[in-house]
Write a structure and sequence with these properties.
Elements (H helix, E strand, L loop, with lengths): L1 E6 L3 E8 L9 E7 L9 E9 L4 H21 L8 H25 L7 E10 L2 E7 L3 E6 L2 E4 L6 H8 L4 H5 L20 E6 L5 E5 L1 H4 L4 H10 L3 H14 L6 E8 L8 H7 L10 H22 L1 H9 L3 E3 L6 E3 L37 E2 L5 E4 L6 E4 L5 E3 L6 H7 L2 E4 L5 E5 L4 E5 L5 E5 L7 E6 L5 E5 L2 E5 L17
Antiparallel strand pairs: 1-2, 2-11, 3-4, 4-5, 5-6, 6-9, 7-8, 7-10, 10-11, 12-13, 14-15, 15-16, 16-17, 18-19, 19-20, 20-21, 22-23, 23-24
Helix pairs in contact: 1-2, 6-7, 7-9, 9-10
């Protein structure tokens, strides 16, 4: 489904959404409101939401959000006494997000089949040469100026927290097992705090709002190149969605692009350098999009032959959206049946247990014993006293280099393991905490000269180290590599 509209001469808008290649339901929703809805006080309002939660919960959460946010804005702007400054517009958007959160959270609590539903959301309110943007979750907004692209929102996600703290790089975050865990969204808590920004726009600027179905499938450089080279916002939306589908289409994908004023012809030399790292995009749309379109057509043909004409016809004409004349112009079809989602939370309290069996013949000391996030066990070898890792299959590996194992055995009476398999050894003799990575390589010692008698040690999910030092519980906060923050505990190699 796609939509294009224009508010001449200031704003042109394009949009496309797709269910993707894997999902059975499109839980993305969007809204486009033009200047006429606000008596000309605002040039446009656009909203994109990516729902989550059960069979139908995510679809409902996103749809409620793209209806509620515009309704709040329209009601506020209708008050002719409103001076409508940028700060007031930001406050209106924040109120829209809060109202949507109230509705989604209340419905989720009242209906067991909608429990834990929620949605990410990005919105942009356009007026003159200013764009007031708001976001929660990992849906994103990008600014494309003269074919150079910049992400203007920061994901509210667990991996983004790890990137910010220096625990993960951008490339590591893309393959992290926690990449789909968001830390802020509409409907998952009694209140929500969207981030609000004001952007100053120039003629030719394009704002891109999208769900993570695009950004998980297409890298930022390629997104920027396509948005910059496409003739119209609608062309860019079509190309981006097609590329996301070609790359796997693992999630619903929604792309909405607004253009301010007239597109700047051509592009800067920096775009050429960006494209050199990727497949050529010299001529759009045919040189790049036509091969994609041909492969898609072949896939559709094979699907028809496999499933039969009857099934394919049903699938082809089934739609997740329909047009309406009222705000927000495009709506999801109501689900025919709401099936309560099966609970995925494991009840640890009432589990039964099988008879005990040996995991490994390796002899271990009585304490300590720990597990990491991948199910590996860690213990102390009985003979050498060195820490070892035992996989779920029973394979045993030494956690420290063989030449340092005796020293660790002598000094490391207390130790801990984090979720990534890094080992932390507390030493009363060296008055420090030594750290080893999962390969057994010593990373460094921390707390030298600042600890008195460290004993028990623990590490939380953010990498903060907790110690019992001389009977007192202390913490060494995790910092990015090479941090120069006052009070930082420097590691020695």
């Amino acid at each position: 489904m796609s939509r294009a509209t224009a508010n001449p001469p200031q704003v042109m808008i394009g949009c496309r959404t797709d269910i993707g290649r894997v999902r059975k339901m499109n839980q993305d929703s969007y809204a486009i409101l033009e200047a006429s809805e606000f008596d000309g006080r605002i040039d446009a309002l656009v909203v994109v939401a990516d729902g989550m939660g059960g069979k139908a919960g995510g679809e409902i959460a996103s749809r409620v959000t793209v209806e509620t946010v515009p309704s709040v804005v329209i009601e506020a702007i209708a008050d002719e006494s409103y001076t409508v400054t940028d700060s007031e517009l930001g406050a209106i958007l924040q109120e829209g997000f809060s109202s949507a959160n109230d509705v989604v959270f209340t419905q989720g609590r009242a209906n067991p089949e909608l429990k834990n539903m929620g949605t990410t959301c990005v919105a942009a309110m356009l007026r003159g040469n200013h764009a007031i943007i708001a976001h929660v979750g990992d849906s994103r907004i990008y600014l494309c100026r003269n074919s150079a692209i910049e992400r203007v929102t920061e994901d509210h996600s667990l991996v983004q927290e790890h990137i910010r703290s220096g625990e993960l790089t951008e490339s590591e975050a893309k393959v992290s097992r926690y990449r789909n865990m968001i830390t802020r969204a509409i409907g998952i808590a009694p209140s929500v705090a969207p981030e609000i920004r004001v952007l100053e726009m120039i003629s030719g600027d394009r704002l891109l709002l999208c769900s993570d179905g695009l950004t998980n499938m297409v890298d930022d450089a390629r997104i920027g190149a396509i948005v910059g080279l496409a003739e119209t916002p609608q062309d860019a939306c079509e190309h981006l969605v097609e590329l996301a589908l070609e790359n796997g289409g693992e999630d619903n994908v929604t792309v909405l692009i607004t253009q301010f004023g007239t597109k700047v012809p051509g592009g800067p030399s920096t775009i050429s350098s960006v494209l050199q790292s990727y497949e050529p995009l010299h001529s759009m749309p045919e040189a790049y999009v036509a091969p994609v379109r041909r492969r898609n057509q072949l896939n559709v043909l094979l699907l028809f032959l496999t499933l039969g004409l009857g099934v394919s016809t049903f699938m082809m004409f089934q739609r997740d959206y329909h047009f309406v004349t009222a705000v927000p112009y495009v709506k999801h079809n109501e689900p025919k049946v709401i099936v309560p989602p099966a609970s995925t939370k494991l009840d640890l309290t009432h589990l039964e247990y099988a008879d005990p069996v040996a995991v490994t013949p390796k002899a271990l000391r009585g304490a300590p014993l720990a597990c990491d996030g991948a199910g590996n066990l860690y213990g102390i070898a009985l003979q050498s006293g060195a820490p070892v890792r035992i996989t779920p299959a029973g394979k045993v590996t030494l956690m420290v280099a063989s030449e340092t194992a005796p020293a660790v055995a002598e000094t490391g009476k207390h130790w801990a393991v984090d979720a990534q398999g890094n080992l932390y050894v507390s030493s009363r003799f060296q008055k420090s905490v030594s750290k080893y990575d999962p390969t057994g390589t010593r990373v460094g010692s921390f707390g030298l000269g600042k600890l008195t008698a460290p004993e028990a040690v623990a590490v939380d999910g953010a990498g903060n180290i907790y110690l019992v030092d001389g009977g007192k519980l202390i913490v060494m906060k995790a910092l990015p590599p090479n941090a120069t923050t006052p009070g930082a505990t420097n590691g020695t190699r």
